[in-house]
Structures are given as C-alpha cells and as structure tokens.
Design a protein that fits this description.
Layout (H helix, E strand, L loop, with lengths): L1 E4 L4 E6 L12 E7 L9 E9 L4 H6 L3 H13 L2 E6 L6 H15 L6 H9 L3 E8 L2 E11 L2 E9 L6 H24 L4 E3 L10 H11 L4 E11 L2 H16 L18
Parallel strand pairs: 2-3, 8-9
Antiparallel strand pairs: 1-2, 3-10, 4-9, 4-10, 5-6, 6-7, 7-8
Helix pairs in contact: 2-5
Amino acid sequence: MIRVDGRAVVYGELWFDEEPPADAAVDVLVYKCRRTSLPGVRNTTEQTLHTDLTGPSDVIATAFQSNCRYQIRRAEAQDRLHYQVIPEAADSLDEFIDFFDAFAKQKGLWPADRHWLARAAAARQLTLSYASHDGERLVWHAHLRSGRTGRLAYSASWFRVLESDYRSLVGRANRWLHWRDMLYLKEAGMQCYDWGGMFEDESTAERAGINRFKRMFGGSPVRAYDCTVPANVRGRAFLALRDVWRSWQPAHPAAPVRRDSLPQSS
C-alpha cells in the first residue's frame, strides 16, 4: 500500500486486487485498477491494455506490430543504446523528475507529482528505467509494481533537438525501452504489463496517437475499476464534506493528465 499525505487526511492507495493491511493507519482507502468492482460503493471505470508476461519472450514479441518489432530490432542492433533499471527509485528520483518536468513543459502537461512519486518509492513499489545514447538520457519510464503486475506510471521522451534523425532515434529508444522493461519485469516475477490506461475519447490527434502507440505492442483491452472508501470516522467525515463541496462546484473541462502521463507515438 502507498500512503499519501493529503491536506486533511492520509490516503492509502491499493493497486489491482491488493487488500489493505490490518495496521493500515490511514483515513481513506483508494482502490485503483481493480479487476472487479467493489460492491456497495460507487465505482468509476478505466480502460487499459494488459500484456501477458507469462509466456516465452519470443511469444510476447509476436503480438507486436511488425513495424514495432523492426524498430526494436534496429534499436538493439544499430543504435548503441544503453539500458539502465533503477529498482530503488529514491536513488534517482530527482534526476527523473527534472527530466520529466522538462518533457512536460515541452508537451504542455502537468509536472511530475513529486509527492506521490516519493511515497511510491518509499513503499518500494516504484521502478525507474532509462535508455541512453552516448551517455545522453533519451527516454525515462517509471513503473508502479503491485503483486504480479507492473504498470506504466510515467513516460518521458525529451526531444532536445528537432532534426528528424534525432527524433527517430528517440522514438526507437522509447519502443526499445518498453521492451526491455517488459523483460526486466518478467524476470522479476511480474506476470502482467499494464499500459497505464487508454483514452476512451480519441477526438484529438494527441490522444489518438498515444492510444495508437500502445496498440503497437498488442495487449488485451481490460476494464478496471476505481473507488474511494473511508477507513475510519475521520475519513468518512472528510469524504462527506468533499462530496458536498464538489456538488457546489461548476463543471469544468477535464484537466491535463497529471499522473500516468503517456508515451508519445513519435
């Protein structure tokens, strides 16, 4: 469980089908990406893709689109890329956040949620990885681990220059990094690679491109369920006040994605 300090209460995030510990010591439980809805409470839903990691590596790769496999092979054979995984994410968290925030500014996204990342790292549920070329970091990924599932939480590809060859190199490095992450998570005992959500509304080119990028790797569509429940009296009172406050607020367009900032197709 990831403990996150809010302004008035302490949240406990439970991912997939994780159950709260007996000594949770939190006010509000937030269930994320459950495979089934939690009865008796209001659930929201999310669409995502799951890649099965239980089979042989070559079988996993056969589900990728042919151009995706080609770009991964080319990256492996010709691009002189270096793969680095950082299981103890706290050791490189500042470097990752600096890279992601530069990417986010470039793409018009929210900056990294530093507090959540720190709490996930403290819970030892966060893994960082990057692909570099001649010592330069090209792409960073952050994965949340829970049970037998690794979920893409952040992906950042910072295009330092605009030349087409450089952009193509970064695009190949991103695909290659996903593949290497899958192999690492498989070796670590993970059985499922969760692609961090899919946009159900593809009315913008950006969203459609992100979904298209993820579908290049195959994967099975999955419907997941989220819900929030009180863990004690304090949590119950807070959620009741929060619901009243929200009912008074005017409707606003959806905010930019803050977490699960998704990999680009370029």
